[in-house]
Amino acid sequence: MKKPVYWILAIIITLVLSIYQRMTGPTYPKKVSVELDGERYKLKLPRSGVQQDQVVTLKDVPSSTKAQLHYRRYPTTNDYTTVDFTWTDGEWQAVLPVQPVAGKLQYYITVAGNDYPADEPVVIRFRNDVPASILIPHILLMFGAMLLAVYTFLLVVTRKDYSFWLKLTVGTLFVGGFVFGPLVQHAAFGPWWTGFPYGTDLTDNKTLISFIFFVAALATLKWKYNKWVVCLAVLIMITVFTIPHSAYGSEYDYTTQQLKK
Predict the structure, then answer these.
(1) How far apart are CA 6 and CA 151, in angstroms?
(2) Is 30-126 a domain of CATH 2.60.40.10?
(3) Which of 20-29, 135-144, 241-250 tops mean pLDDT?
(4) pTM of this structure
């Protein structure tokens, strides 16, 4: 098998993992389907907002429809506040009030007397806006590390020399996860690191776990069984990267009025 084929396979695997992570994460908009008079309307309810009021829209829903938005602080047992959607700029709109950094709101909508989502309310978390100069390199480096790791794995299983690509993977993961990662975390929520031992942020913790295994693979590079350590490190990375991004992240405590990590 030629190396261009390895790259194609690595790119496909990385894209599949990135799409899966993106779509299963708690910041990806919640998709709901509303049926009115035999017509089905697909809506996206936001689950991430910056430091401004978040507008919720009912795209393409007819102007003759009545709809309400119900929200409350999360996690609390407060009563829901209800506001009517208003017809603005050719679509239904309602506003979720901005919350402190890492503050959350739980909400659902009522359209023509029916509640959506039907199973459980949506939770939206507010953050600071992250500069593209920090966010884009972080994203590119993290998925670059995944791409290099998968490519290294393919070299290992086909008994090709992989030492250079292993070193490049470790370096890319370090810069993406431990240089730009804390920069993104600080810009978005304030703290630099909310993983072990300071918090339970799964994004930080899964990066740490993955990096530890790759450092072990690099440290045992001269060992005759190193290929098995490399394969384990790559499989660990793939496993932890399937965990939804931003799960168990920073959260504002409305009781203490402080940020929980």
Answers:
(1) 6
(2) yes
(3) 135-144
(4) 0.86
**CA-closest candidate to residue 153, choices 230, 239, 224, 223:** 230
Distance between start and end Cα atoms, the chain: 47
pLDDT digits (tens, 9 = 90+) for 46-71: 999 999 999 999 999 999 999 999 99
| HEC assignment per residue over the chain | CCHHHHHHHHHHHHHHHHHHHHHHCCCCCEEEEEEECCEEEEEEECCEECCCCEEEEECCCCCCCCEEEEEEEECCCCCCEEEECEEECCEEEEEECCCCCCCEEEEEEEECCEEECCCCCEEEEECCCCCHHHHHHHHHHHHHHHHHHHHHHHHHHCCCCCHHHHHHHHHHHHHHHHCHHHHHHHHHHCCCCCCCCCCCCHHHHHHHHHHHHHHHHHHCCCCCCHHHHHHHHHHHHHHHHCCCCCCCCCEEECCCCEEEC
pLDDT digits (tens, 9 = 90+) for 124-162: 999 999 999 999 999 999 999 999 999 999 999 999 999
Query: Per-residue pLDDT tens for 152-196?
Result: 999 999 999 999 999 999 999 999 999 999 999 999 999 999 888
Tokens, residue 57: 């829209």
d(CA 85, CA 111): 10
Domain boundaries of the chain, sorted by first residue:
30-126, 130-260
